[in-house]
Structures are given as structure tokens and as C-alpha cells.
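Minutes, methods subgroup
Present: GH (chair), OT, SY

1. OT presented the first of two proteins processed in the latest run. Sequence and C-alpha cells recorded below as shown on screen.
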Amino acid sequence: MYQNNRISVVVPAHNEETQIKRVIDTMPDYVDYIVIVNDTSTDRTSDVVRATPEYASGRVVLIEHEVNQGVGGAIATGYKWSRDNGIDVSVVMAGDGQMNPLDMPAILAPVINDVADYSKGNRLVTGEAFKRIPKIRFFGNSALSLLTKIASGYWGVADSQTGYTAINAKALAAIDWDHMYKRYGQPNDLLVRLNIAEMRVVDVPVEPVYNVGEKSGIRVRKVLFSIGWLIVRLFFFRLKEKYIIRDFHPLVFFYAFGGATALVGLLFLVRTILLWLAQGSMPEMSFLVTLFSFSISFNAIGFAFWFDYQANRHLNPPITHRDVTHRQAPDPLDP
């Protein structure tokens, strides 16, 4: 136990035979259960796990998927096990060894101290992030993080794609894990659902870890567009669930008006360009309507952003520092 809390670590694993033993061997002693979800690996991942002393002692729980469900599906399976087995806080760590166990106390602290219901690592706030994260991943992650701020309502979070997280029993019970997005967009989907459920979320600076033998299955260019489209859908899902069905907020009108005037501006922009090409001169009235429409749209959507930010400030405490804090957790057996 850690500060009188039962801790599980959910480890989604797919073809991690070379890395999974290192994840188990470096797991802090205060972790009660290591829940490894083998998502139909075709290598010896399960055999390596079963050969460890922690598996024999019952500390490692191995769950085998019969059908591949993706990283999000594997995390959901581990979360459901944690929810159903009286776990107080459940942490997620990747099966490829890219998450430093020394960061775990910092990840746990906001949840255990009741500052947040869900805490997540943030690799982007440290000075080392740009140097150590592959550049295409850094910029792709930054773009998705910006879109996720808008979609989720957590305007203070960044590094939305990080998988190093901690969640308490209250949030575990509040989310329907069977309807969670099961692929690489799971962190974005979860943030939106946490916001709808009025759960508090905080960022914690963590160390970017690369080149430890991991093999990424992510194709950034492909994922950027698929997750981008998911985020757009999640944005409208949150507006409907939070500001129309469960309660009502006038920011819906501002978003609708801003979207409508943007469409009008786009139509007049096309008309202006076509007339310009056909007549050889700029149609002044169409040009003025275009500028006016886009100006009104910008202001309306800007007000909607501000209203959303104010409505969710209590759910997103600001990050307290930007330095990675590495420390060993206190030994619970020490006097």
C-alpha cells in the first residue's frame, strides 16, 4: 500500500517480450498489483510474464484478450479489474518501458491528496522535451493537445497523448469503460468523459523516456488525422452532453452563431474569388461581407472559449511547477 491506498498499475502489452520483464522488475514495492493486459500478442509476452516471481506470488495479474482491442481497450480491461477489486488508485504504465517508475509518486500525489480525481504526466513542460522527443511526435502531440483543450474543456492540460496516468476509485466508477474509445485516441476520449462527469484533472511534469528498446506501432501522420477527426466528434459530444442535456449554458449559442457566421464568411469568400477571377476586379460588397462575417465569427467563438474556460476552471487546477520531481516513495515498513 502507498499512504493507506491500494495501488494497481495497469500495463497494456502487445508484443513486448523484450520489455515487459524490465517493467515488472522496476515496479516500486508499494504497488499492490501489476495488471498486465496481453492484447493478443504473437510473441512470448505471456510466457515471459508467467516466468516471473511476481506472477507466481500473485502480485502480477495477467489478463489475456482473445480479440485485439487496441491500447485503449487493454487499459479499459485493466481499469475494470481495478474497479471491481477494491483498488483505491490505478496507474497506467506502458509495457515498453517508456515510463520512469521514479515519476510515480508525483503522479500519485494529486490523487491521493484529493487535489484531483485523475492526474496525467506532461512531458512537454520540461526543458528536455523538445530535445528528447522525436520532432514529428513532439509537433504532432502539441497539435493534438491544443485540439484536446478545446474538445475536453480542460484548458490547462497539455501532452494529451501521454499514457502515464493515475485515477481514483470515484472516477473509475463514474466512467463506462465498455464505451471507451479503444485505440490511440483513448486519452482524448477519456478526458472528455471525465469532464462530463465533473472530475478534476491535473498535469504532472514527467521525464520523457525514449531509446530504451521500445518499438512504436504509431504512424504519426495516419494517427494525427484519425485522432483529429475523433477530437472534432468528441467536441460536439461534450457540448451536447454537458451544456444541453445535463445542464444548459449560453456558450452553446455563441458556438452556433460563430459557426454559422464562419460558414457565411466562407461562402462569400468563394463568391468573391470567383467574381474576381471572372471580372478582373474585387467585388467590394462581397469582400466587406466576408470580412464582417469572419470578424463576427472570431469574436463569437472567442467568447464561447472564454465561457467554457470559466465553467471548467474548478476541474483543472493549474500545474504547480515545471520541474520533474524524482524521488523514491517512503518505505511503508520504515518507522
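2. SY then presented the second protein from the same run.
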Amino acid sequence: MTRADAMAAVRNPLAFIAARWTPTPRTVRRAALAALVMSVVIVVTGGAVRLTGSGLGCPTWPKCTDDSLTATSEMGVHGVIEFGNRMLTYVLCAAVGWAIIAARSEKPYRRSLTRLGWAQFWIVMSNAVLGGIVVLVGLNPYTVAAHFLLSSALIAVATVMWQRTREGDSAPRPLVGRAVQQLVWFLVAASVLLIAVGTVVTGAGPHAGDSSEVERMPLDWENVTKLHAVLAWIVVTLTFALWFVLKAVDAPKSPLNRTRDLFLILLSQGVIGYVQYFTDLPELLVGLHMFGSAVTWIAVLRVLLALRERPDDEIGAPGPATAEATVGTRA
């Protein structure tokens, strides 16, 4: 490497890498998928921190204690769990960084993909700071809820980027009519409300995240839980109605199959939710419910993204949605 190369790498490392490496489309897709998977993993491990009472395992931030950057042996297993979750943030950053580098290096260059990667990066950084605030304010339930909602935003952006790696950059073309699109947007809005109320259920419930006295939301937990259940049934009903409408209008297979997948995920999530409610919220089931919440949100977004196609005009070949639509037409 010459001195000029070194200077170029320092000035703009992404451009330097892009000039010397062209990833395959599969590599870009895998990088985007890795970022999505890690965004779900960090939600699950964050839930594990809370459910094991390790939320204040590291009592301060950004250090673990006032005198130590890492957990010490005196802090026990709670310190290990909390500090381990903090370290996973770096793994998440690495996955998002790989997605950004792969998107920036793809030929031809797609600015939309790179922007989605950077959006994930800034959400991760914002949530890391918010996570520190959560610790500093002693697991205040409102900050904990905001922490989870920002993680849901990260999952949304990561899901969109993963989908966009499998599409072209031409203008989107709808695969269904406006009435169906509006029904799906109602479904998305109901799902957002369901997730938001779910954070209130957690904030008012018994799992405070630490063994000490931690502030809870001053709400009747039973009533909030019932509201959460009602919203869940609304989402299930909208999903079933959407599947019925898609069948009636002979829609392409992609939105139909993703709606079916969402319906099955919702049923599984509902079973877990009711079982955990009637068994006094065992930690394992609550953790599975949190994982199911992330998977449900991804499934809802995939239904929304399946309503249009973006063929790759550069290659002239149909994208995944187009191919599935062709199969549906022949059937």
C-alpha cells in the first residue's frame, strides 16, 4: 500500500474499500440479514437481563462500576449478565457495519441501501445512550419502554434493508388494489399499538428488572393486560380478513403466503401470551413472548413489503415478488 492509498483510506475508508472489493448480491443479502438477526438477538438478551433481575448488575454507565469498566467477581452472575449484554452491542455494531460496507461496495452503487444501513447505525447509537440512561435512572419503566420501542424501530429498518437487497431500484409497482393496501396499513397501525401497549404491560407488571425496589407504572396491570389481549385479537382478525380478501381477489402468492405466515405466528404468540398470564408470568415464557413480539413485527412488515415489487431493471430479470406473481397467474 502506497502513502497515497493510506491517506485515501483514512479520508474515506468506505470509498477505499468499495474501490477494491465488489461483494456478490448474496453477500449483501447475508450482511443485511446478519444485522436483522442481531437486532432481534439484542432484544432477547435485553429481556434476559430484565427477567433475571440483572438490570442493575452494572450499577452505572458507561463503566460497569465507578472504578471498573468491566464486571468484577464481587458482582456475581448479575454483573456478568448485564455486562455481557452491553458487549453484545458491539457485536450488533459489527453486524450493522458489515451491512453498511457491503451495501457501499455493491456495484452499481445503491445509495438507498447505504442510507438504510446508516439509519440502523444511528438507531443503535441512540439506543445505547438510552440504555445507559435507563441504568442511571434506576430502571425507570418509561425509559425501559422507550428502549424497547427504539429496538423495534431498529428491527423495522433492518427488515426493510433486508427486503431491499433482494429487489431492484426501479419505482415500486403495486401488486394489489388500494383497498387492500389500506387494510394492511390498518394492520400495521394496530400492530404498532399492540407493541406499545405491551411495553406498558411490562412497565406495570411484576418483572421490574432488579431484585431491589424499582418504580413501576402506576396502572392496573390486569386492565392493561386485558387491553393488550383485545389489541392482539384485533391484529389477528385483521390478518385473517386480509388473507380472506387476498384469496378473493386472486392476489399473487407472495402477499398471500406472508399473510398466512403472520397468522400462524400470531396464533403461536397468543398461546404463549395466555399461558404466561395464567401461570403467573414464568420468566422463560415471558422471554419467549418478547422473542415472539420481534418475530411478529418482522412478519407484519414483510406483509406490507410484499404488496409491491421493484424489478431489477439493470438485469432485466424479475425480482422475487414478480416471479411469485407469475407462478400465481399460471396457477
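Chair's summary of item 2: The radius of gyration is 22 Å.
Next meeting: continue with the remaining queue.
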